[in-house]
Amino acid sequence: MIEECLVVEFRVTGDDCPLARATREANATVECRPPQARRDGNALLRFSVRGGADALVERLDEDEDIRYLHVSTVNGAANVRCLSKHPCVVHRLVDVGFMAESLQYRGGVETYLGAVVGHDVLRGVLAAAGEAVGVTLERVYPLGTGNDTPVAQRWDLTPTQEAALETALDMGYFEIPRKATASEVAAELGIGTSALSERLRRGQGALFAQLFR
After folding, report:
1. Which of 39, 134, 160, 191 could form a disulfide with 14 if both were Cys (CB 3.0 to 4.6 A apart)?
2. Is pLDDT at 132 greater than 70 in this prediction?
3. Domain that includes residue 181, residue range
């Protein structure tokens, strides 16, 4: 058994995949699950986007490399599912041992976060990265027990509580000093401040109860 597991983060520039093009043109940020590769070379994508969602979806809908585009909206966040006929760079790294856990596309720049088991696998992943378009290693560090979570773990939050907490976090509501007021966060969600306060309070209560159970 190999004892060491390493957390690895890659940055990708210059990619010409549909998501990179769309986020670059719409100046949007996308949080994407690792794409599922099909045997025909196509990839199934699932991702969420806040801000600029309409422009991003419009560009994807016009892209000939995108098929079966479906969009659902929950509390201001667009959840998108589609098929991409363009190969994903991340699969080149997955083929040699990179276990992708999260992907972000921000203005055309991609960030991959995942893990590799052992330094031998890491060397193979780095070699593959060197052959791919614009892939650079941002950081690598040993995986500790403190930042490893069970695969089956789920936080028991309602969709509205999750949206309120995520939006407040993204806008800097929880920072010191605050970068956004409750009124600004509520306006972003299209609700009143009293409703926001209740969702944040109930959501935080649910998270703390599960965290310290």
Report:
1. 134
2. yes
3. 159-211
